[in-house]
Amino acid sequence: MSLVFAAPDPAAIPVHVIEQDALEDWLKDQPEHIQGWVAANGFAAGLGSSCLIPSEEGGIAMVLAGYGTAKARSRGRFHLASIAAGLPEGTYQLSDLAEDRLEEEALGWLLSGYAFDRYRAQKPAVAKLVAPDDIQALRAEAIAAGEALTRDLINTPASDMGPADLEAACADLASNFGAEMSVIRGEALLEQNFPMIHTVGRAADQAPRLIDMHWGNEGPTLTLVGKGVCFDTGGLNLKPGSSMGLMKKDMGGAATVLGLAHMIMALELPVQLRVLIPAVENSVSANAYRPGDILTARNGLTVEINNTDAEGRLVLADALALGAEDEPDLMISMATLTGAARVAVGPDLAPYYSDDSAFSGALEEAATRVADPVWRLPFHAPYEAMIEPGIADLDNAPKGGFAGSITAALFLRRFAGDAPYAHFDIYGWNPTPAPARPKGGVGMGARALLEALPKMLDL
């Protein structure tokens, strides 16, 4: 799988992108045989439709790509990717597409070439695109590669993506870009004061660990923290089978952070990047942590365990406390943290929390520009009392069922210190196939963040 553009080719097949209400005018300028062919094939330029025009030699002279209406396009993204997926092998070049749509559609075309084929042969798109002149081709390729890394990590089952395998994936990424990486494993977590990471992961066969990667020596400091729960049984508060089936994706925060890190390093952004990933498996064993236990986190706060299935915020808390000690210019956590976020916004939006209106403004402007939708939710201070059980400083699973994503975000904020902080409560999974986004693991929010970072950090 190679998600790169084709080399410039004067023989590349032109793809004419035609909006529905522009088809009639476009046809007026075409020879009669093309007009007749289009009519015979019933091509009306509906969104996602296509018409291959034959050449005299029996090949393809051109492709007509239906671009529908603005209303139809507003209901999705990467519209040309579905057309790319159906084209025969060859080299193609976009034509007649507005400049402000080029980057999104070119990236979507690249991503149509993604397929998760580790366990079974798949059929990704084979149509190669010549990079449009008005886009940054290397940037699009770096983004596609980072997204593919995220998808591969999420799609891999826990049998091949446990904490040790996630560590190996981090090591490969670090090696590829000359980053430094250290890992604290097993009992050493207790010795070096990461008690909650150790507690959550101690019941599993593979030891819990904290992965710490550094890259870059100049520029503002950026710390990314990703939840790396490689499988979540729920612990002693065991999940039902219907809820456990997708828990290989519970390391989707770590996968998305690593995909974003790949993009940042490949593009050589002038930042000092730190990536922290607490990698654990939340398992059931005689030494599993229990409801009612009280843990003391790295920063000294005590946490009452009212549900062992609310483990992600525990491992993130120790990692955030470590990240805060360096007082970075910006710290961001990403996690597949709560079902409440899915109920609130569904699987397609990346909900996030930030108290910084400048951060939110930059992010949402960027998200619209790169078709990576996000939605701001509030750090609602009046709900702080909901995470304070009385017997300890914090409750990891407030009773009542209200505001589950918000209370989780408030919990995490207690460990971020004074660092400017944002939290993403992502889903990390695409349940329904869509253009450039097959069913399975998917990055959420990473492309928006990459686009916004220069403004956020004054790069």
From TrEMBL:
Signal sequence segment:
none
Q: Which GO terms describe its biological process?
A: proteolysis
What does UniProt give as GO cellular component? cytoplasm
Query: Which family would the database say this protein is a member of?
Result: Belongs to the peptidase M17 family.
Q: Which gene encodes it?
A: pepA_2
A Pfam family per the record: Peptidase_M17_N_1
EC class of this enzyme? hydrolase
Q: What is the lineage of its organism?
A: Bacteria, Pseudomonadati, Pseudomonadota, Alphaproteobacteria, Rhodobacterales
Task: Tell me where on the tree of life, at the top rank, the source sits.
Answer: Bacteria
The protein, known as? Cytosol aminopeptidase
Among the GO molecular function terms of this UniProt record, one is:
metalloaminopeptidase activity
EC number, UniProt record: 3.4.11.1
